[in-house]
Amino acid sequence: MCVYVELYEAFDNAENINVYNNGEMNVYGAGSEEFGKILKSWKTMTEGAHDMPAFGVSLNSETLKSLKSGVWVEFDFGKVYESNGMPYEKLLINVQKSSYGFNLIRYNSQGGYYGRCFYYDLAGYNMDEFYDILQIL
Predict the structure, then answer these.
(1) pLDDT of 120-135, one tens digit each?
(2) H or E element at residue 23
(3) Which among 99, 106, 120, 127 is positioned nearest to 38, based on CA atoms?
(4) CA 125 to mean position of chain CA atoms
(5) CA–CA separation, 24 vs 88, rounded Å?
(6) For residues 119 and 137, what is the distance between their CA atoms, to the nearest angstrom?
(7) Contact assessment for residue 87 and residue 80, using Cβ atoms and an 8 Å cutoff
(8) Longest Cα pair distance anywhere in the chain, in angstroms?
(9) Ordered DSSP codes for 46-74
């Protein structure tokens, strides 16, 4: 059973936020100080952002390889949500300084990180501060 939400509303429902830094993962549970800092920075960065159709399609094996380098953040919902007709249990984002938009890669337990992505245009903002927050945790 899916829970239908607008994409921007989903992030408040995350049970965990997983942060990957060059392949090393740290998990922050809802209610932790780190979780609160990440979510607050996320909301600031995405205020006024537009979700748009993505050109990107994720392939599970390629995404798993990519997680070994760079900075990534993953919102883990603990159940199936659906936005814009696409279901997901987790949303994964490659966080890059000076980026003004990004793909949100959907994860489903049946296929992993496979299928169409969402895209967020940050409407003139970039990921600099969000990236910096993830580096100091």
Answers:
(1) 999 989 999 999 999 9
(2) none
(3) 127
(4) 17
(5) 23
(6) 26
(7) yes
(8) 38
(9) HTT-EEEEEEEEE-HHHHHHHTTSSEEEE
